[in-house]
């Protein structure tokens, strides 16, 4: 698995998830055949079932009773066909996408400011900037390749400001980290606008010639954030820190403000984005090298989905329902009678409608709403009630497929062809290199087959993705005449072979000689009717859910370095679970002490809608009173570790994006009587139950972290846990220790380790290795009972996933003199792969050096 060195976005660099993709291939766990009501059926039968359900719903309840929930992980071609089928031929406007949870606030803000959903800059700008502001972005973990570009472009005088309530791996790059009170970003950026005016940093000519709304915006900003002292207090920051940020911003012409989910996923998400954009417009820092506001997109094809019109409030090809003439134009192009009368329901509203019984057929493609939507407990109940739930996925068991009436096996990333668009408007080809697993088919094929069965064969008669792409490109240019910036009509006549060899290309690509544009608005001309950008007055709007006596902690949620979303792919590579192998709660040390939760113990986080159980990580980088939980775990991997059980479905009034970064809850110690580690050879039936469990699939076995609230009579129960009588048993009742292993013809079948103190549980790696041994020798058998390896070194918690280097190894090397990231890299190779562990390596070096200094 290697990167493509000629790709302009990554230059061949991969993150650890990308580098591990090879390990995620294979048919194990894949959904390989269509299923209707649990029974395997043929494709024609499955297509009939889907078409029948849709037809019946339309006839009885009208087209709006059919809904599609799409995803930024579909290819543009899949997305285009879904949108066309739904809005043009079924006639339902109820088509939304998981990008609603991801990018919709940025989209709404772009439209307000620029007159279109247009990202002005390109990745190079992140390198050219003399001041790089990263707000609500943990790029070191969530955009690791881009982060490496930002890091590599460091030079004397280049400054980085990170704005995030938590200290994260990204803060490592920061000259200044503003650990602001969550949700106060609009205040900070309103205050910045006021400061920029007072310090004479406004580009008056640019504002006069190219913007409108400056006076009203400034008036609102002054009302909301009158003084530096006021801002510092409201954002819970030191006055000097705020001033340093403002001063740097006023001084540096080349400023990029990159923002992601800490900004978007908020009840004030759109306003937060506009507050940022306002400062860039006021200083004329847009459309210039190294100067722009930059929305960091999340999913591989979030941008492509926005191009085709996958969001419920858009129609197609950057035309909205209320764009004059758009509905007729799109109907003309698609050759359908008329398109749906939209806008449709946005994701959270859509699932509310499902809950109310208004949606009779829900087709979910390439997303896992039972895990990723807020109030996931309620979402699950809604899915259960919906008469027909159709799920297209690659994986047999996800929290969402478990509610499906019809399951459609989708071809996975290596098995399908198409295009995706990244954050800098760059379209790249994704090329197939594997045969399709089982009966799996590409999503566009499935959607077209259903369209055909509904009587629209002529309009969905695609020979392949190239055909669909040409149509998509043609629509973007159809009756456009410069009215829509999203125009790739220059690609509408690509031959199949030109499509196959398409090089990464930034849009717009108009007809004629191909001069694609790396930056938009370079002439100060925007996509509004009068060509002027809008500064948008922004009031203060704080998170709706605030802590109280019953739920005193603020809950923040987000990503970890080595997992992708709901883990359907990344958890298939066991090494990606080595960095964080369980759901966890990051807690400030003082909170932990006050609440009596212990490091490495378990804790319950209880919210008003549900609860989350995970391992306690003491983290001084948290603000006091705030905890952080990862979004990745779900019922396939743990009992009660779904972050969205804790976040409410409160949304931004303009974008409909849920406030996923701000819940509230109560943290308590989970009363464990015992902690355990169980490893069982793969695919063995499971007869045990534990109060707490978290699964970590390994190569030759599955492994679980376990804990119980009540004592277990282990000798009496052990057979159920090990799937048979163990040959090796050791018990020390006084210590609360129990160990047992079951062998079959000399090879290890299952092993269980129980301790009172979780810190005493052995490292899992050598235990897992024992499953690959042909015949366990005497020494290994003894070691199993001693819970200690024979000769393999205990490397400690994994830090570098690329080269499998652990914390203990690193600390030993530092002690022996490798006291820099470079030296560690030379000795152990850690940090020399994707580089995303470098912040942690730096931390370990600093920590060790500090310890040495203390002892001196
Ligand atoms: N490893 C990994 N990478 C990913 C993904 C993944 O699942 N795993 N998913 C991809 C996707 S789809 C997306 S959308 C991106 C998301 O990428 P990011 O947005 O960078 O990731 P998050 O961890 O969701 O959140 C970013 C930060 O916002 C901070 N934050 C919380 N509240 C506030 C606030 O009020 N103000 C500010 N300024 N910050 C706040 C959080 O503390 C967190 O550190 O990542 C993409 N990359
Ligand atoms: N509390 C909280 N909630 C959040 C967030 C947060 O930060 N905090 N982040 C939000 C964000 S930004 C996002 S993007 C969402 C992500 O949430 P989801 O979109 O729900 O997460 P994924 O795990 O990516 O789901 C993708 C599904 O599609 C399947 N799949 C993969 N490839 C294909 C394909 O080609 N075709 C088909 N048909 N299926 C495929 C996968 O197996 C998987 O089941 O979560 C959101 N929810
Ligand atoms: Mo996302």
From TrEMBL:
Protein's UniProt name: Molybdopterin oxidoreductase
Pfam families referenced in this protein's UniProt entry, alphabetically: Fer2_BFD, Molybdopterin, Molydop_binding
Record keywords, A-Z: 4Fe-4S, Iron, Iron-sulfur, Metal-binding, Molybdenum, Nitrate assimilation, Oxidoreductase
Residues covered by the 4Fe-4S Mo/W bis-MGD-type domain: 1-29
Listed GO MF terms: 4 iron, 4 sulfur cluster binding; metal ion binding; molybdopterin cofactor binding; oxidoreductase activity
Family as reported in the entry's similarity comment: Belongs to the prokaryotic molybdopterin-containing oxidoreductase family. NasA/NapA/NarB subfamily.
PANTHER family: NADPH-FE(3+) OXIDOREDUCTASE SUBUNIT ALPHA (PTHR43105:SF9), RESPIRATORY NITRATE REDUCTASE (PTHR43105)
The keyword Chloroplast belongs to this UniProt entry's keyword annotation: no
Biological-process GO terms, alphabetical: cellular respiration; nitrate assimilation
GO cellular component term, pick one: membrane
Domain of life: Bacteria
InterPro entries xrefs: Asp_de-COase-like_dom_sf, BFD-like_2Fe2S-bd_dom, BFD-like_2Fe2S-bd_dom_sf, CT_Nitrate-R-NapA-like, MoPterin_dinucl-bd_dom, Mopterin_OxRdtase, Mopterin_OxRdtase_4Fe-4S_dom, Prok_molybdopt-oxidoreductase
Cofactor: Mo-bis(molybdopterin guanine dinucleotide); [4Fe-4S] cluster
């Amino acid at each position: 698995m290697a990167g493509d060195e000629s790709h302009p976005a990554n230059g061949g660099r991969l993150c650890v998830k990308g580098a591990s993709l090879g390990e995620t291939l294979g048919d194990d766990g894949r959904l390989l055949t269509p299923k209707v009501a649990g029974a395997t059926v043929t494709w024609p039968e499955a297509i009939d079932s889907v078409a029948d359900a849709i037809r019946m719903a339309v006839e009885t309840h009208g087209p709006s009773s059919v809904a599609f929930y799409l995803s930024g992980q579909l290819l543009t071609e899949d997305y285009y066909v879904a949108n066309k089928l739904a809005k043009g031929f079924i006639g339902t406007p109820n088509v939304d996408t998981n990008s609603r949870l991801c990018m919709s606030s940025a989209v709404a803000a772009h439209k307000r400011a620029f007159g279109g959903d247009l990202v002005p800059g390109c990745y190079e700008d992140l390198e050219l900037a003399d001041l790089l502001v990263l707000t609500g972005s943990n790029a070191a973990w969530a955009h690791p390749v881009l982060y490496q570009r930002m890091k590599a472009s460091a030079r004397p005088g280049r400054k980085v400001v990170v704005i995030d309530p938590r200290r994260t791996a990204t803060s490592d790059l920061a000259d200044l980290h503003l650990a602001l009170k969550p949700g106060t970003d609009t205040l900070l950026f309103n205050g910045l606008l006021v400061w920029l005016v007072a310090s004479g940093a406004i580009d008056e000519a640019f504002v006069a010639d190219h913007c409108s709304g400056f006076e009203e915006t400034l008036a609102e900003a002054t009302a909301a954030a009158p003084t530096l002292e006021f801002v510092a207090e409201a954002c819970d920051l030191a006055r000097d820190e705020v001033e340093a940020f403002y001063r740097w911003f006023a001084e540096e012409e080349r400023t990029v403000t990159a923002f992601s989910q800490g900004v978007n996923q908020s009840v004030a998400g759109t306003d937060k984005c506009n507050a940022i954009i306002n400062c860039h417009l006021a200083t004329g820092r847009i459309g210039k090298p190294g100067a722009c506001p930059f929305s960091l997109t999340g999913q591989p094809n979030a941008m492509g989905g926005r191009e085709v019109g996958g969001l419920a409030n858009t129609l197609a090809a950057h035309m909205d329902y209320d764009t004059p003439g758009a509905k007729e134009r799109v109907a003309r192009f698609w050759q359908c009678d008329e398109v749906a009368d939209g806008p449709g329901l946005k994701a959270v509203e859509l699932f509310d409608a499902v809950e109310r019984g208004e949606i009779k057929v829900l087709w979910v493609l390439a997303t896992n709403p039972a895990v990723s939507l807020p109030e996931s407990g309620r979402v699950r109940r809604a899915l259960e009630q919906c008469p027909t739930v159709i799920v297209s996925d690659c994986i047999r068991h996800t929290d969402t497929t478990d509610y499906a009436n019809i399951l459609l096996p989708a071809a996975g990333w290596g098995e399908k062809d198409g295009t995706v668009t990244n954050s800098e408007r760059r379209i790249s080809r994704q090329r197939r290199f594997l045969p399709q697993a089982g009966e799996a088919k590409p999503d566009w094929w499935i959607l077209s087959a259903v369209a055909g069965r509904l009587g629209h064969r002529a309009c969905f008669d695609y020979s392949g993705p190239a055909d669909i792409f040409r149509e998509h490109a043609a629509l973007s240019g159809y009756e456009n005449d410069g009215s829509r910036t999203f125009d790739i009509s220059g690609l509408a006549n690509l031959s199949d072979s030109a499509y196959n060899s398409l090089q990464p290309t930034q849009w717009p690509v108009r007809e004629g000689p191909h001069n694609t544009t790396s930056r938009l608005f370079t002439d100060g001309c925007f996509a509004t009717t009068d060509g002027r950008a809008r500064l948008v007055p922004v009031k203060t709007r704080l998170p709706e859910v605030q802590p109280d006596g019953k739920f005193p902690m603020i809950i923040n949620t987000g990503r970890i370095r080595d997992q992708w979303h709901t883990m359907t792919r990344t958890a298939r590579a066991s090494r990606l679970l080595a960095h964080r192998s369980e759901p966890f709660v990051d807690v400030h040390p003082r909170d932990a002490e006050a609440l009596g939760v212990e490091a490495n113990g378990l804790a319950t986080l209880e919210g008003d809608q549900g609860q989350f159980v995970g391992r306690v990580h003491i983290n001084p980088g948290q603000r006091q009173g705030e905890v952080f939980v990862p979004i990745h775990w779900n019922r396939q991997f743990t009992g009660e570790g779904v972050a969205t059980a804790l976040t409410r479905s409160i949304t931004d009034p303009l974008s409909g994006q849920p406030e996923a970064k701000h819940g509230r809850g109560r943290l308590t110690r989970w009363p464990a009587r015992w902690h355990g580690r169980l490893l069982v050879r793969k695919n063995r039936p499971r007869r045990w139950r534990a109060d707490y469990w978290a699964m970590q699939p390994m190569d030759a076995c599955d492994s679980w972290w376990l804990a119980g609230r009540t004592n277990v009579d282990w000798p009496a129960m052990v057979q159920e846990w090990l799937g048979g009588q163990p040959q090796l048993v050791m018990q020390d009742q006084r210590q609360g220790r129990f160990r047992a292993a079951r062998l079959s013809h000399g090879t290890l079948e299952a092993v269980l380790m129980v301790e009172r103190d979780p810190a005493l549980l052995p490292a899992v790696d050598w235990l897992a290795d024992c499953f690959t041994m042909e015949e366990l020798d005497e020494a290994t058998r003894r070691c199993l009972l001693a819970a200690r390896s024979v000769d393999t070194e205990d490397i400690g918690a994994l830090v570098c996933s690329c080269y499998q280097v652990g914390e203990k190894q690193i600390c030993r090397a530092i002690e022996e003199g490798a006291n820099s990231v470079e030296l560690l890299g030379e000795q152990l190779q850690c940090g020399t792969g994707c580089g995303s562990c470098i912040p942690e390596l730096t931390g370990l070096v600093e920590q060790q050096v500090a310890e040495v200094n203390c002892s001196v």
